[in-house]
Amino acid sequence: MDGCPPTPLFTFGVIADIQYADLEDGFNYSRTRKRFYRSSLQLLKNAQRSWAESAVRPEFILQLGDIIDGFNKGPGASERALDTVLREFSGPAEVHHVWGNHEFYNFSRSALLRSRLNSSALHRDRDLSGDVYAYSFSPAPGFTFVVLDAYDVSLLGREPSSEQYGQAMDLIKLYNNNDDLNCPPVLEGLQRRFTMFNGGFGQEQLDWLHALLTASDDKRDRVTIVSHVPVHPGSTDPVCLAWNYEELLAVIRAHSSVVCYMAGHSHDGGYCQDKDTGVHHVTIDGVIETPPDSDAFSTVSVYADRMLLKGEGRVEDRVFLFPS
């Protein structure tokens, strides 16, 4: 922290993949990793207590998706689980909710747009169509955060009769011929990303992001992009990568304003710095696979030339120097 002023310009909290359910511990889809459904709520409480007791309290919280687990799906259970978790987010800091695959296991896209998980109400960009969940906000002069919809192109949350569902099915079937589309099509390599629990970014959203970043370039803003699904192969296991990650990376690489991309989804976390742009790609470790005696959240302090991520428990400390 040498050279940094004692007080940051602002701070924010980050937490990912809580996946709460009122269930005994279980395992992941392939039964290789233990999941702590009920105790994930206590880890969220630990994070909230830490943020509340910080000398500099976070301006906002980034909740990077999968707030409750798909096992809650059922009459009334999804709403009860969501109420339980959102009660813990009732502090003074604004919460920006990202949508992941487990949101769509529990709710339709139209239901999510009407729910308390739609945090875009005060920030909505009118250039986007009604059901694309993407928006931007500025917590301080010179800084912009962009929330992206990684399931804009997806089999999740779309009606099977819709044009978007048909387009997503056509795309995934080019690479995955398994009866179970949650099963990766290959054992190794980037093609593993073509599963039903991933998704992609539609052309309208990509065009909107390009226009937003063009304006940010002109203003010399520092832009952080957040979404549920990682987009850099160096920051995640390929099975958790966005379907059209190359297109999103191409947009980022065409602009000078982006400094960081934050995601969840891959529960072991990850990090890389893009060699061409210097953009930091960080994937935050998931609460759901964190033992009850540990933690998985972080607090990010923002300065004029860097962001300092202070991790707790499984989450590593990191320094994100802004590209020159």
TrEMBL record:
<dbReference type="InterPro" id="IPR029052">
    <property type="entry name" value="Metallo-depent_PP-like"/>
</dbReference>
<feature type="domain" description="Calcineurin-like phosphoesterase">
    <location>
        <begin position="11"/>
        <end position="268"/>
    </location>
</feature>
<dbReference type="InterPro" id="IPR004843">
    <property type="entry name" value="Calcineurin-like_PHP"/>
</dbReference>
<keyword id="KW-0862">Zinc</keyword>
<keyword id="KW-0378">Hydrolase</keyword>
<comment type="subunit">
    <text>Monomer.</text>
</comment>
<dbReference type="Pfam" id="PF00149">
    <property type="entry name" value="Metallophos"/>
</dbReference>
<keyword id="KW-0479">Metal-binding</keyword>
<dbReference type="GO" id="GO:0047631">
    <property type="term" value="F:ADP-ribose diphosphatase activity"/>
</dbReference>
<comment type="similarity">
    <text>Belongs to the ADPRibase-Mn family.</text>
</comment>
<dbReference type="GO" id="GO:0047734">
    <property type="term" value="F:CDP-glycerol diphosphatase activity"/>
</dbReference>
<protein>
    <recommendedName>
        <fullName>Manganese-dependent ADP-ribose/CDP-alcohol diphosphatase</fullName>
        <ecNumber>3.6.1.13</ecNumber>
        <ecNumber>3.6.1.16</ecNumber>
        <ecNumber>3.6.1.53</ecNumber>
    </recommendedName>
</protein>
<dbReference type="GO" id="GO:0030145">
    <property type="term" value="F:manganese ion binding"/>
</dbReference>
<dbReference type="GO" id="GO:0008663">
    <property type="term" value="F:2',3'-cyclic-nucleotide 2'-phosphodiesterase activity"/>
</dbReference>
<dbReference type="InterPro" id="IPR041869">
    <property type="entry name" value="MPP_ADPRM"/>
</dbReference>
